[in-house]
Amino acid sequence: MICCSKHMKEELQYVFQLPGDKVEIIPNGIRPEAYEAAGITPDIKGITFQPDEKIIFYIGRLVPEKGVQVLLEAAPGILQRFPQTKVIIAGTGPYEEYLKGRARELGLEGKVFFCGYIDDQTRNELYSLASIAVFPSLYEPFGIVALEAMITGTPVVVSSVGGLEEIVEHQVDGLKAYPGDSRSLAEQVCQLLENEERAASLAEKAYQKAKTFSWDEIARKTAEVYREIVLSPENRRWQQEAAREKMQETITVQKAEDAPQIPYLI
Fold this sequence. Notes:
- This protein is of the alpha/beta class.
- The chain is built from ten helices and ten strands.
- The chain has a domain at 31-213: Rossmann fold.
- Helix 2 (68-81) packs across helix 7 (182-194) and helix 5 (144-151) packs across helix 8.
- It is elongated and about 90 Å long.
């Protein structure tokens, strides 16, 4: 069986009681060329961006497990230290109205903007504008959005959970916050907002890592797994047994065809 992360491997082993050597990990991939911005406009989805503003960007489904509520809870602390900041939330989902209501309760009007669904070009423009991409998931089998941000050269802050924990190495190519902890998230975001040089260094290392997740590389790893299975002694034994069974079936059928026909008495 093939899965996309160590986290998912552990879940599969637990649910299906599989031995570790029966589960291979091959991550999901990305197409780097799909994340190139054709150009940047100062007005996107009705939101005007100023040159001196900090932009925090989230893209993904609006469901509880994605942790957008944690980002909203962290926003007041971030804005207190960096007032010239906008939080852009792109995506749709059943949690959208709740999140909008929570943003109003926290007094975040004019600072937090919900874009709804965005196309690929708008996504790329927002990544280009973003100071930081934030993914505060509470549960995450893999975390493809983190790779998308990394391949655009955008610094990332993620929660230390599931596949995100495997993709991002803390203080090497991104920063991690404790899952569900808005104070921890705010602190990690502020670290990057106040130190642009460090943010750029992390982003460059993240970009280099993200390039190793190209679909060509994923295809090579997948082909290698199949090759190992086909050439394994266990598979050869299975092929030999299958061939013997097929031969036995052929012999049995041939004997039946050669047997004398006994007429029925009517």
